[in-house]
Task: structure prediction
Amino acid sequence: MRFYFYIILELLFTSCTKEKTPFQSEKFDIQIISVDSTRRICSIDHLVLHPSGCGNVLSPTDSLDIDSLDLDGNGLIESYIYAKSWYNFISASYPCANYNHSIVISGTNTDIQFSKIQPYNQVKLFEETALVDSSSTWDYSVVLSLSVQQAPFSCYFDGTHYIGYRMKNIEGYSYGWIKVRSDSFGVRLVDAALNRTLDMGIPAGRKIN
Result:
């Protein structure tokens, strides 16, 4: 009798237990973002030797080259990348220190942000397949290349790199990457992609869901 009692209990237990479904992980929803890879953003034509002999300086002295970006593919401009060179008097004894140059990527508001490291809001660059997600530090404006000759901070990023970005909506963030090819004075956008699955992140360079 005891044997049949345990059989009945087991049948009751299994009939009242719902079958568990396997865990369904979130899936990538990757959108390829169109960029003009033929466009080089650069404010400098060439370098010239300063008459004082202190070194090479930028030419033209004061120049701005700017390009608008649509990084979520909705047809609206929400960010810019620009190269700027300018003259700012600092020193008469070392006149080359008066010439400045920078390349910056910036959102029109804080709903779009770019990966950064300190100091000076310097851009954080990602290796291919590295995860772009909430673990990074973010700001709506970051410096890609900063060259100020009188100061100890100069940022050059010659070569090909990935920049992380994220876009905010009411429910969370969508994360994306921008591939750039750069030299000391200019930059080209090569490719870009956005993962529309909120708060999931995206490996740099990934294009396939």
The chain has one helix and 18 strands. The two ends are 58 Å apart (CA to CA).
